[in-house]
Input
Amino acid sequence: MSGHTLPCRGGQEWQPDASPADQAIAVKLCGSCGLKPECLSFALASNQTSGVWGGTRPQDRRRIRREAKGDAA
Ligand code: SF4
Output
């Protein structure tokens, strides 16, 4: 993902210790990032368990993984 200007570069909102309010800001900003699909794919493939990636919070990615396994509960 190098060679692109990332809105999240250095942003506290994307860090693992960001508050829920800051994470919500990051998720919104990810929405206009051209790297969102590949960023989310990377986060899922590399099992990123913290921070905002590809417009998702950690709990969003856990849900995506559960649903991918067919366990939507
Ligand atoms: S989609 Fe990924 S690269 Fe783009 S702003 Fe969000 S976290 Fe950063």
Notes: The longest helix spans residues 20-30.
